[in-house]
Design brief:
The protein is mainly α. It contains three helices and no strands.
Amino acid sequence: MPHGKPAGMPCVQLDDDLRCRLFGDPSRPAFCGTLRPGPDMCGVSRDEAMTLLGTLEQATRPDRPL
């Protein structure tokens, strides 16, 4: 995704099991390698993880109002 991924949209590199198709591949974006899953990012359930990640996406989007 040359211009990034819109907030709320799944990455196009996720397979049917929601696993990254580029994991371990040199073409994987450097940003993806900086993400370190943990309780602060993932919570204790998939629903909580999706909420936390959605908040992170909105807070870091380039066009967000100041």
